[in-house]
Known about the structure:
The complex is a heterodimer. Chain A is mostly helical. Helices cover 71% and strands 0% of the residues of chain A. Chains A and B meet through helix 4, helix 5, helix 10, helix 11 and helix 12 of A and helix 1, helix 2, helix 6, helix 7 and helix 8 of B.
Amino acid sequence: MIGSLKDLLRRAWRHPSGRWGSLCLLALALVAVAAPPFLASPIEMPDVVAGATAPSLAHPFGTDQLNRDMLSRVVQGGQVSLAIAGLAVLLSLTLGSLVGLVAGYFGGWVDALLMRAVDAALAIPRLFILLLLLVVWERIPLGALILVLGTTGWFATSRLVRGEVLRLRHEPFVQAAEALGSSGWRVIGRHLLPNAAGPILVAATLAVGDVILLEAGLSFLGLGIQPPTPSWGGMVLDARPLMLQAPWTALFPGAAIVLTVFAVNLIGDALQAALDPRAA
Amino acid sequence: MIGWMLRRVAQAAVTFVGAILLLFVLMRVTPGDPLSRLTSDRGVSPQELAVLRARFGLDQPLGAQLSAFLAGVARGDLGVSIEHYPEPVTSLIATRLPATLLLGGAVLLLNFTVGIWLGVRQAARRGSRFDRWLSRLALAGYATPSFVLGLLLVALFSLHWRLLPAAQMTDPLLPLGAGPAARALDLLRHLILPVLTLSATSIALTMRHQRAALLSVFRLDYVTAARARGLGERRVLWGHAWRTTLVPMLTLLGLWLPILVSGSVFVESVFNWPGLGSLAAEAIAGRDYPVLLGAAMLVSGVVVLAGFLTDLGYALVDPRVRPQ
């Protein structure tokens, strides 16, 4: 079972999308983690008079409206974005898997109740759930933002996992485990979860891209990451009135979002292709 | 069939009621009440806040608030706006709806024509360079936030080259006596950039879906049989294979809607398009939670309805899905 997961990863790696996507994401993560000590401090002295200056040797990405180094800010924004996306997806994955496993394995009224609730939650677009949660929240702390993003992202995952459990639960090896007297939780943990790992992994990868986009969008609306913590969406928001005079202030954070989400989705694509080769 | 439909309608109703309850809960789980932000943002005094609380019923116990909220929803009364007091939320939404329908309709039209055609071409030339590059382009389109793309298009086409209007739906300088043709042309010019921006994401989805649906049909025997009978490839593709994919393409409706609605919040606020999306964006800026709640409710209703219609479409077209 773990072997099949390894096999899945190997096949995804052989797919050119998978390889390029992983390398690209790895490079981005490496820059986000390792580069800051070598970069100009983003807030040297806020200098409104000098304002935004064009890209130069001293500031390869230029500076923003407060004369802060854009390269440092984009890199720091990347740290925040990747950390938030990773943690939020981890949380929603755990919640979704748990609910899906319980609903699928125990069935009956537990299943009916959980899935009706998931239906209702899926009827509201996630952006609107987040808007309603955040609109009255004064300067949301980062931890709370992760919590909010994580707890609003598991509905589709739980359906997916439930479907996998329903597919697996009448397989001979699951029935054999039950006949041998394994408890429900043991069957779930040892047999169902590992075998559903492939589709969960694909969904998780795509979810990372979605969360990065959502967080950027929320920050663009002023509801996500709060300044002075740099965020890509917030930088685009700041750049909005400067689009003509200082296009680089929007271009670099915008490109960072596209590149990161693109890399993540390439990996998701390759995993999907590895999981179901006929559809590729 | 009638019994199945009744059950499905009941299920949709339960889902919608669940969504409404969830929306109410969402408004109340955040720290503070929906008005508490006004004190810090606007310098509203505690006395004024108390008046506002009473006006919006926030001084009532939670159970009373819930029953008042549900009773209002049942009457079709979504409360009044804070920003545009005493304008009812429903009338605000009604005035903004046409612009969003126009924008969404144009995006769907583009999806149904260009998106589907591209997806079909991709599947027909599976594995070719055309297929691979278009797939990557679609993936890049999907990775681009609509607010970034929108700002970029405005900077290039409106500010730099001065080709297309940057905002709004009509030109304020349009002469009063302009004929319908001039008005239509003006509207069309204003539509181009927002439609392109909003389409970038959804068209990627349409192409992928169409491509995958067609590829799974290509494996079926009847396609092989059609080819074996010596039918031309074009005939096989459009006359036989593609027709079958129309059924799975129905599912797209459910995937599109949330994307279009969420995207329109950003696109409409970037382009100042006077629709629901910019109403929501304004409501965010003004902490106008009744308006936001009303918009979310409308959207959920549409999503539930779309899910129902999709299932109904399936059942009408494909007897295998129809339960006895």
